[in-house]
């Protein structure tokens, strides 16, 4: 999801300015409708939706004009594929609370990737995490809620902070157990907050300690999502397009 899609119109579809085009993505359980932006008389641009699973969906290009019925101009298939970011997000989501798995992730710390790679990893993995269908009972601290905060252990928050993943940290803070993870010490006695301070991650430390810390800029300037029941509406400020997602 969140890639730019360009639609090339045929000669007969290059119509007047009062015609509005939409793309409708129909999956097995979810449907998305995105508005489009006209680049020129023959080209449209929009954003691909984040889907809930990897599958081939039907895409319909629809044209709307006031006072006229909506027309389906063209249909095509579109494939959502599973990439490394999706694999990583699934792995992290399933190993919340799994000490063996979380300790295994610490090998990444010994071969820390360059800053540009970390930024790319942060953006892609968090985006995939956002689109995962997490169970209602999912918790940053894992399924065993009987564990107290006094028991030293690794958490997903330690993982995100150790690598300096600002966006993933923000995402986890919004999830159940996210705030509780901030005060948990690992076996070395470090909390996510002390890890951020020790490593000189100032923005990350601010995010964890300020009550009114704002969402990382790269997202808040790109998109904003409003949820309501089985529906969500997302506004991409960059292209000024909207996306409606609904349970099919």
Automatic annotation (TrEMBL):
GO annotation, biological process: adrenergic receptor signaling pathway; positive regulation of canonical NF-kappaB signal transduction; regulation of Rho protein signal transduction
Identification of the protein by name: AKP13 protein
Protein's organism: Podilymbus podiceps (Pied-billed grebe)
InterPro entries linked to this entry: Ankyrin_rpt-contain_sf, Rho_GEF
Chain ranges passing through the membrane: none
Record Gene3D superfamilies: Ankyrin repeat-containing domain (1.25.40.20)
GO cellular component: actin cytoskeleton; membrane
Name of the gene: Akap13_1
Any GO MF annotation of the entry: MAP-kinase scaffold activity
